[in-house]
Structures are given as structure tokens and as C-alpha cells.
Amino acid sequence: MAYLTEKFGSAGALHLFAGAGETVAVARVPAIKASAKNRSKKASHGTFLYGLPLLGLFFLLWEIAPQLGWLNRIFFPPLSEVLVAWWALLASGVLIEHIGISLQRAAIGFALGVVVAIPLGLLMGRYWLFEKVSDLLVQTLRNTSQFALLPVFILLLGIGEESKVAITFYSSVFFLLVNTISGVKSVDPLLIKAARSMGTSDFDLFRKVILPASIPSIVAGARLAVKSSLFAVIGAEMLAAKSGLGFLIQNSQLMMETADMYAGILTLTVIGLTVNYLLVWFKRWATAWKGQSETSLI
User: Fold this and answer.
1) Are residues 86 and 95 in contact, defined by beta-carbon separation less than 8 angstroms?
2) Is the pTM of this model over 0.90?
3) Tens of pLDDT along 144-196?
4) Residue 179, class by beta-carbon neighbours within 10 Å (0-12 exposed, 13-18 middle, 19+ buried)?
5) Can you tell me the distance from the alpha carbon of 222 to that of 236, in angstroms, rounded to the nearest whole number?
6) Could you tell me the CATH superfamily of domain 77-290?
7) Which of 267, 287, 268, 290 has the alpha carbon at shortest distance from 279?
8) φ, ψ dihedrals at 86, nearest 5°
9) Of 82, 108, 121, which is closest to residue 249 (Cα–Cα)?
10) Which residues have CB under 8 Å from 59's CB, separation 6+?
């Protein structure tokens, strides 16, 4: 260091060491990225694996609590009885039929929510005047309970499929809308300025910059919207339907077939978890360019 100071001066010596440090740091970047990627993969797998013992304990308590008399097995049968009932419903084809009907209703409502909410959210997030004009109406509708409006949908659309699709759409659209607006507003302004400086049109700006950068927020909204859609369609089927998982659960409860009721509830849980994992996978795939990994199961 004394030699470098004598030859180049203190500023020059520090500059040389700074340059060497930068070179070393740059050389280590690929290794750091690879290490972070490996850690994120382990964390993703660990989130599931670490939770298995507690889930197993929960199922064990479910099995032994009714058998030991801690819970009334008429109202809360052991897990083994629920699984037997679930298999009987599955083998008879009844469960598959109800699952298909409920998923169809939820999927149509959710798809309509995507078609309406994402373009509207992109516009509201990008153009402040459009947001100012439409925000009050959106907030008014968003803060009105979907279940409070279910009788209105039934009166206007009847007890057929239309009312159930409508309540599912209403339940999902605002989660998607709010998260899309948030995603658009969180886009780095420098990216937009850079695209503008190269003469990018509004359409290409949305397609190539704003939409890809907003995908994490949109997928987060989709995860909430899917859950809300399933809840809404089950509630609608419990009140006014003769098919679907909601009807199966409600009818089993009225007929005191509690094992069948819990079998329907477990089926809903499995469906919700499966859809959630699919959306998490889609988010990882769609945002792979960012080098991030999603480990949350919420």
C-alpha cells in the first residue's frame, strides 16, 4: 500500500483497490445468483415438507378425538369414517359430478372477472384521470358484500346458473382489479421513460413493459380471487341449488350424513390447495426473468 501511495498518490491507490474490489465482486455475481437460486428452491420445498408433521398431527387428533369421546362422533366422525364416505362418493360418481358443476360455475365467473378486471385495472393504474372518475363507483361496489347481493342476483337472474356465475364474478373481480392497479403503479418509472424514449406506442408499452412488470401483483390478486370464487359458489349452492359441492355439504348436514358433509369439505380444501399451487407455479414461470422464487402458500 505504501508503494502504491508513493507511486500513484493516495487517491490513485484507493482507486486501484476499489477497482480490484469491483472486479472481484463482479466475478462473484454468477456464484451469488446460483447460490440464491439454490436456497430459494430449498426454501420452496421446505415450506411444504416442514409443514407435514403438524398437518399429520392435526389428522391424528381428528381420528382419535371422536373415538376417545372427546368429541361427539355423530357430529364429528373420525377421519377414517370420512375417508370411507369420501371413497364411496367418489366410486359412485356422485362426488365427481358435484365437483365438475361447482368448478364450472367458479371457472366461468373467475374467467369473466379476469376479462373485465385486468384491462380495467391497467387503464385505472396508468391514467390518473380515468382512475379519479371511476374510483368512487369501484370502491362503492367493492365494499358491498357479495353474499348480501345474492338475493338480488337470484331475483334478477333466477335460481339457475346465471345467478351463481354472477355472484362468482362479483366475488373475484375486485381482487383482480385492485391488485392490477397496484401492480401498474409499482412499475419502475425509468422503464416507462426508457420505452417512451424509443418511441414505443401505448399498446406496446402496456404489452411489453407494464403488463409483464405487473404480473406478480396480478397473480397475487388471482390467488385471492380464486379462493373468493370458490367460497361464493359454495355459498350460492347452499342457498339455491340442487347440485354442486355446496349443495352436497348442505344436504348432507340436513340429512345428518356428517361423514359425507366432511368429505365434501375436505374435497373443497384439496381443490383450493391445488389451484393455489398452480397459481404459485404460474407466477414463478411468468416472473422467472426476475430471478425470484415464491415460497408462500397463502
Assistant:
1) yes
2) no
3) 888 888 889 888 988 888 888 999 999 999 999 999 999 999 888 888 888 88
4) buried
5) 21
6) MetI-like (1.10.3720.10)
7) 287
8) -60, -45
9) 82
10) 79
